Amino acid sequence: MNAMPYGPRRAATCPGYAEMRILMVSEDLPAPAMGGLARHVLALCKALSHAGHHVDLMGNDDFPPEVALDAMNFGGQFFPELSGQFSGWKEMPLGVFMPLKRSLLAQRFARTMQRRAGDYDVIHYHGHLANVAYYLPPSVNFLQTRHDQGSDCLIHTRFRRGEVCNDIDPQACAACRTHHPNALQKAISSLAVRRFRYEVKKGFLRHKTVFVSDMLRKNLSRCFGNQQWGITIHNFVDTSHLRNMSTHEQITLPTDQLRVFIAAKLYPAKGVSALLSILEPHLGHRIVMDIAGDGEEEAMLRKRYGHVNFNGWQSMEATLKLAMRAQVIVVPSVCEEACSTTVLEGLLLGKTVFALRRGGTPELGIYASRPDQLRLHEDLEGLASALLNYTPRADCVVSPQSPADASHAAGRLLALYSLPPGPIATLTTSRLDPWQGRSTKAGHPVGQSDAGQEVTRATDFQS
């Protein structure tokens, strides 16, 4: 298919790196209702393009780019060449994971990428087929960012029947396709899981891998063994959108009311329905709630909670405006969030953020501007109780600079792009990232994790 140009290119301006030709790849783009992964990719495309690099994007052929409006205006070309990701292979009716499904799809994606590999210095994949690296030869300079637990979990979330799943037995995975799998269903699903994990593991040993949280790396080691499978570069946001916004809108509420904002997909793993059930007696009285998001529970929740403002799916700009109006941001996910964009945005907007102490969320405390800004709780009951007793702050200052900005992440990734093909594990040193150990004005530490490992040939990360 023909490439679709989006705007003029810029001259190379990124200090320390010659202009690079980068092919970004994600089957999540374009889409009429973009999630966090799609927004992550577009923010990175724009940051790299702004730094003077040649960035093109390969995505799906299911939607025209126009469905994403001007979000696709990142300065490069778009290639709608990925297909087949929505093919179900009758897994749900049969109650099994099909052994060949993900292998054949990853092989197709890999062939599509490889056809264009000669035109680029690096291919960077953000998607749901962690085994695609297995089908790319070692000579291709390939890097993938893992955004979820799909490196070893075929439903990507490690969340089953209302609880976090820590089971690593492939036979146990059959219960994610049918509630009561028989012996044949267990055998088929087990074969699919074993094959997929084998391909992912071999691919990680062949190519570069980045995880958006340390939690993802540590959880992966349960299945793959304890070694350096890649490095962590936390999720990020385009802080230019935050800086360009005016001060948060005036909140005209009685002093005994609290305006709360939630941005989440409306299905059980995100915990929205469970939290609303706990807070129900206080909704519309003590709590004024705005929710942005759609999903399988939306109709039921709209019918039950008439005092809650359900806004449906919202664009990034509209979501941020709703967040700016709130006094508190709540992320009630009961699954293990890898690296919640909503948490990052709330912290950078200066809001107090309430969430559960699970997944990658605790790691994001390093981006808080004050020690009590990210408030973590063991369960939703404790979170709800703390929320009802919270006294709103008078000031919410947008963070002017943060290592969670897309431009900072772009600099770190350029260091990885510039390396020769091969796994990151053989190329890392213990040298620290420039933000590591720095402090904010409030004296709160900015970074204390091993996510700051740098690579041997990259002498300095650009911020």
Structure write-up:
It is a single chain. With 463 residues, this protein is α/β, with parallel strands linked by helices. The protein has 2 domains: 4-232, Glycogen Phosphorylase B (Rossmann fold, 3-Layer(aba) Sandwich), CATH 3.40.50.2000; 239-388, Glycogen Phosphorylase B (Rossmann fold), CATH 3.40.50.2000. It is built from 12 helices and 16 strands. It has helices at 36-50, 91-94, 101-117, 183-204, 214-224, 239-244, 272-279, 298-304, 316-325, 341-348, 380-388, 406-417; strands at 4-5, 21-25, 54-60, 77-82, 122-126, 142-146, 159-160, 163-164, 208-211, 231-232, 258-263, 287-292, 309-310, 328-331, 352-356, 374-377. An 8-stranded mixed beta sheet has the order 1-4-3-2-5-6-9-10, sandwiched between helices. Strand 7 (159-160) and strand 8 (163-164) form a beta hairpin. The protein starts with a strand and ends in a 46-residue tail after the last helix. Mean pLDDT is 85; it is low at 1-14 and 427-463.
